[in-house]
Amino acid sequence: MSTSPGAGGAVGRVDGQVRARLEARGLRLHGPHPPHDPLDAVVVHGGVARTSGQLPRIDGQLTCIGTLGDTVDVDEGARAAAVCALNALAVLEVALGSLDRVERVLTVTGYVASTPDFHQQPAVVDGASEVLVHAFGIAGRHTRSAIGVASLPRGGAVEIEVTVAVKG
Fold first, then answer.
1. Domain ranges of the chain
2. Looking at the chain, which terminus has fewer C-beta neighbours within 10 angstroms, N or C?
3. Is the predicted pLDDT of residue 58 greater than 50, yes or no?
4. Which 3 state secondary structure label does DSSP give 61?
């Protein structure tokens, strides 16, 4: 899967198995893009880490603005969801010190700005799910919700939240 709506730079160095798998697939972390105060990018509690919603940003710029079923097609939306997942991994890496501390991806919640007659939200959020399986293999398989919404922050077409189990 290509996430080429911009070049973006990798965060840190490739220092673990997860980062090596991402690099082998040509996937780079474009963030982190933390939320505004008083929010945290990641909350870690009781062996679980949960990200704040991640928009499709590369180099601080939104790469996919609009509405599925109107100005954005399914392929563009899936690429945007992949960028969102990479941004979720970037904030997880900062919070955990290494993506190798992720034991299992538990769930993904995907929000898709869409017209009332658009019903392909799962195909859009597949872009994020594929990134997580590429990153973590079988441990990247997860439960998921793909939810159509009227609008998202800053006009983004997709927003992704990720919850993972963390190794002690």
1. 17-166
2. C
3. yes
4. strand
- Residue for token pair 């959020």: 125
H-helix or E-strand containing 95? Answer: helix 74-96
- CA torsion sign for 78, 20, 109, 111 is negative
CA distance 22 to 75: 20
| pTM: predicted TM-score of the whole model, two decimal places | 0.90
Domain range 17-166, CATH architecture: 2-Layer Sandwich (3.30)
Omega cis (within 30) before 116: no
pLDDT > 60? residue 11 = no
**Are the C-beta atoms of residues 88 and 96 closer than 8 Å to each other?**
no
Backbone angles phi, psi at 19, to 5 degrees: -60, -40
Beta strands, E only, 52-157: 57-58, 61-62, 102-113, 143-149
- Give the number of other CB atoms < 10 A from CB of residue 132: 25
